[in-house]
Amino acid sequence: MNDLDTSPAVPGAVPREGPGTAYATDHTGLRVLDLEDCLNRLGAAPVGRLAFPLDGEIAVLPVNHLLDGVDICFRTAGGSKIQAALDGDAVSFQVDEWDAAARSGWSVLVHGTAAVVTDEAEAARLVSLARRPWVRLDEREARWVRVSTRQVTGRMLLPG
């Protein structure tokens, strides 16, 4: 495992008392999610968004994913995502959920480095853990990509 930054707090975050629970908030009053809560949300979300460099810009694309320890893994036949992994690019990955009527929601953001999974046994293990893909993949072209997590942060907007 890499040197994961597990500190959920940000500069200026202060502990606050909630109903029976102490939690930290950031400078805007959003609740700071701890690592366990972030990982639970990452693992439960069926789809997230991968942000990566593409032709001098930042591309953001949805992917089905799985959580493997603290790392994000997904299977793709998309050339741009595979190229980012082959290049060992720094990437970000996000999952979130919002309730516009209640004006509440949460977001978890992962920063890490992308790499193509080249070990066949590891790829087979990931296949056994994966959810059913939402899109049809060409099995000959599909590759597993692992985002080796460097930092995980999460925020929650509580109703009211």
Taking all residues together, what is the mean pLDDT?
Answer: 84
Helix content: 10-25%
**Beta-strand content bin:** over 45%
Shape: elongated
Strand tally, please? Answer: 10
How many separate domains make up the residues?
1
**Rg measurement, Å:** 17 Å
Structural class: alpha+beta
Named at the architecture level, the CATH assignment is Roll
Provide the CATH topology: Pnp Oxidase, Chain A
Under CATH, the homologous superfamily reads Electron Transport, Fmn-binding Protein, Chain A
CATH class: Mainly Beta
Major sheet: 8 strands, antiparallel
**Count of alpha and pi helical runs:** 3
List the uncertain runs.
7-18
Q: What is the CA-CA span between the terminal residues?
A: 39 Å
Element pattern in H and E: EEEHEEEEHEEHE
In short:
The protein has helices at 35-44, 79-86, 120-129, and strands at residues 14-17, 22-25, 31-32, 47-54, 57-64, 66-68, 71-76, 90-99, 104-116, 143-157. It has 160 residues and is α+β, with helices and mostly antiparallel strands. The chain has a single domain, classed as Pnp Oxidase, Chain A (Roll).
Question: How would you sum up this structure, described in words?
Answer:
This protein is an alpha+beta fold and 160 residues long. The protein has a single domain (14-157), classed as Pnp Oxidase, Chain A (Roll). Helix content is 18%, strand content 46%. It contains 3 helices and 10 strands; from the N terminus they run E-E-E-H-E-E-E-E-H-E-E-H-E. The chain has helices spanning 35-44, 79-86, 120-129, and strands spanning 14-17, 22-25, 31-32, 47-54, 57-64, 66-68, 71-76, 90-99, 104-116, 143-157. The strands form 2 sheets. Strands 3, 4, 5, 6, 7, 8, 9 and 10 form an 8-stranded antiparallel β-sheet that branches. A two-stranded antiparallel ribbon has the order 1-2. A hairpin with a 2-residue loop joins strand 4 and strand 5 (57-64). The chain is elongated and about 50 Å long. Residues 7-18 have low confidence and may be disordered.
